[in-house]
Amino acid sequence: MTQNLILLRHAKAISRDEWQGDDDDRPLDPLGENQARRLLAMYQVYNLSEIHTSDAIRCYNTVQPIAKGLNLKLEVTAKLSESTYRKDKDKAFDYAKELLKSEINAMICSHNPILPKMLNKLTKKSDVDADEEKLSPADGWVIHRDGKEIIQIDRLDAPTV
Known about the structure:
The chain has helices at 30-43, 57-70, 82-87, 89-101, 114-123, and strands spanning 2-9, 50-54, 74-77, 106-110, 140-146, 149-156. By secondary structure, it is α/β, with parallel strands linked by helices.
């Protein structure tokens, strides 16, 4: 039986130039709010058991509608945040690696540049080529695995709003 690990970039946020507060508190803009509302329809087919998110507000608000729609509790962690990544690049990867080893369908919501590097490291020992491009807001990758073997990676573009 195959399992999936989804790597999702947060939806469109207010630009850093327009935001005066702490970057972790930067919210989604109106486009991002619409994207977040449409993500459930895209990802409910993956039978998610867990959703893990960076503690940044924009990540939390991206996956909160999915969690609500699937009746799942969000697992919020600083290990997937940009500030933690700048200090220790392995924390996010180690976190994702543990999820990849599990036998559940899970989602991670995080940031560029974390997600492309995470995908690259997770797939390094597999026969599947990783997509090297950064994700646009609300884009994601679905890593399909059979047991511990990665068998395919699909890129899903952000929902049209």
